[in-house]
Design a protein that fits this description.
Blueprint: H1 13-17, H2 47-62, E1 66-68, H3 84-98, E2 103-105, H4 113-122, H5 147-159, H6 164-170
Parallel strand pairs: 1-2
Amino acid sequence: MAGVENTLLPIDTFNAIGGTALTARSIDVANVVDAQTNLPNTFVPGRNLIFLTFAAALAYKRGIKNLVTGVAQTDYSGYPDCRQKTIDALQATIRLGMESDIQIHTPLMYLSKKETVELAQKLGALEAMAETHTCYNGQQPPCLECPACVLRAKGFGEAGLPDPLVVRFTGVAA
C-alpha cells in the first residue's frame, strides 16, 4: 500500500471533445483504424498526457515525488501516449513547468499482458485486479468482445490464470 489518499478529480473534458469510440457512445468500439491517423478509433488524443499532468499537479501539492502509470508500449494498440519516449518527454515537461523533480515510473512499459498478469500474481496483486476496469464498452461484467477485453483475456489465458474481474462478476473463470 502506498499510503496515498484516493482522490477523484473531475476530468470530463474528453466528452466535450468527443470523436472517439471511448467518448462518444455512437461510435462502435470494434477494432477500427482511422484511415487518416492510422490510430484505433478508441484513441483519445492526449488522454494519458492529461491524466498524468493532473496527477503531477496533485502530487506537487502533496509533496509526492513519484507517479506510477500502467502504460505499456509492448501491446499499446497504437496509442502514441503509451510509449516510453512520450512519457520521458512529459516527465521533462512536468519537471520544467512545475520546477519539481517528479518522476514518472512505468513498470509495465515493456511487459506483455501475460507478463503483467504474472507480475501481479508474483506480487500478490491478483485480487486487486478484480477491481480494475478495462472494457471499452464500459460494461460490468466486461463485454469480453471489445479490443481491451480481448487483449486482457489473452494475457490471462496465456498466463493460465482466470481473470479475477470476470470471476468477480460471473463466478466463472473465463
